[in-house]
Amino acid sequence: MKKLVGFIGWRGMVGSVLLDSLQKNNDFIGFRSVFFTTSQLCGTPPHVTNSIATRLEDAYNIEYLITLDIIVSCQGERYTTQVYTKLKKNGWKGYWIDASSYLRMHDDSIIVLDPVNLKSIQLGIEQGVKTFVGGNCTVSLMLMALGGLFKNHLVDWISVSTYQSVSGSGSQGMLNLIKQIEHVYQNISPHLPLSKSILDVEKIFTGSLNNMYNSVHNSKIPILGNLIPWIDVSMKNGQTKEEWKGSAETNKILNSKKNILIDGTCVRIPVLRCHSQSFTIKLNRDISIREFESLISSHNPWVKVIDNNFNSVTAQLNPLRVSGTLDIPVGRIKKLNIGKKYFSAFSVGDQLLWGAAEPLRRMLNILINSL
Ligand code: NAP
């Protein structure tokens, strides 16, 4: 009989992209599925091939969850912390595939990104590993973009600045930005076409955002017309947790013998979807720009090297162009004046696809095909 797979968090940002992708790739044909919720018990499950669901099931029903062969959770860290632990205590022997960070650094889990670490995943399945976790979005996108350099053991260190979209913080982040656009438009539209000086309009724009948050939301910071150079909680060394993940998760995924140093500043920007990253890369030997480009583009079929000229870069290296695709364009590749082994590169990737849902979808298929 086909394996029974339970989906939790399928309604959220990552979950809905995963569901869409599973349907487009006709993956539901390979297993039976059932759908859970933490909040919508009266809701209707999605219509997919081989679904045994007649209604949404309670995502906290341990007796039901324990009957599943595979659980795919895109619900978030709090849910995983609570439910995974209970299932394990109750002797559950199934496979857990997760989008959240809670289990990533556990000794008995593998962070999955199969174009980079398929061998570790296959070995893990053979050795009885049951927990497979998607990586942090910027980590996965960086490894997809620069995988050819890591594979050839060329990287000494990377300093990175990220430009992360609001959907990276979930559906609420998207809704907040859209509400801010609506709010500002309502304030500005009476003056359009321009009945005031452009500086007066700028004051209305800035003032309406500041007032909205000072009065209504108090502690929150507007993201429209703004940026926030802080993502996730603080670590003791001055990093944010998002920045800490860069090195920790990269080294775990690569199973590196020598710790590869990765650090930088993670920044939230008012873009709906896709994360962009600007890299300063120190290699351990002097290679040509052509070799650099050839190494990264031959690593996986999704990397596309973008010519270093205005037209190519502006047309192809931006979030709007990349949203909803698996493309990983890498451009602005140049040697830095700092020294012969120093390169810059800029990459954009859909953090809901390669940064979240796609490694999980592929992991589910790897499991289904190997059990
Ligand atoms: P999310 O959009 O906030 O969804 C999480 C859950 O919130 C949903 O499954 C849903 O659960 C509930 N929810 C409440 N209001 C909702 C609404 N208006 N629309 C849809 N769902 C709503 O979170 P997410 O961004 O998908 O993240 C899930 C996990 O993946 C997190 O651990 C996150 O850190 C991780 N992750 C996210 C990204 C990203 O780019 N967003 C990337 C990598 C990893 P019920 O149906 O049970 O109510």
From TrEMBL:
Catalytic activity, EC: 1.2.1.11
InterPro entries membership: Asp-semialdehyde_DH_CS (IPR000319), Asp_ADH_gamma-type (IPR011534), NAD(P)-bd_dom_sf (IPR036291), Semialdehyde_DH_NAD-bd (IPR000534), Semialdhyde_DH_dimer_dom (IPR012280)
Keywords carried by this UniProt record: Amino-acid biosynthesis, Diaminopimelate biosynthesis, Lysine biosynthesis, Methionine biosynthesis, NADP, Oxidoreductase, Threonine biosynthesis
Record's keyword annotation contains Glycosyltransferase: no
Pfam families registered for this protein in UniProt: Semialdhyde_dh, Semialdhyde_dhC
Active site location: C137, H275
Keyword Lipid biosynthesis: no
Entry's Gene Ontology BP terms: diaminopimelate biosynthetic process; isoleucine biosynthetic process; lysine biosynthetic process via diaminopimelate; methionine biosynthetic process; threonine biosynthetic process
Catalysis performed (reactions): L-aspartate 4-semialdehyde + phosphate + NADP(+) = 4-phospho-L-aspartate + NADPH + H(+)
Domain Semialdehyde dehydrogenase NAD-binding: 4-124
Coiled coil (UniProt feature): none
Pathway connected to this protein: Amino-acid biosynthesis; L-methionine biosynthesis via de novo pathway; L-homoserine from L-aspartate: step 2/3; Amino-acid biosynthesis; L-lysine biosynthesis via DAP pathway; (S)-tetrahydrodipicolinate from L-aspartate: step 2/4; Amino-acid biosynthesis; L-threonine biosynthesis; L-threonine from L-aspartate: step 2/5
An example Gene Ontology molecular-function term: protein dimerization activity
Family: Belongs to the aspartate-semialdehyde dehydrogenase family.
Free-text function comment from the UniProt entry: Catalyzes the NADPH-dependent formation of L-aspartate-semialdehyde (L-ASA) by the reductive dephosphorylation of L-aspartyl-4-phosphate.
Summary of subunit composition and partner proteins: Homodimer.
Name assigned to this protein: Aspartate-semialdehyde dehydrogenase
Organism expressing this protein natively: Buchnera aphidicola (Cinara cf. splendens/pseudotsugae 3390)
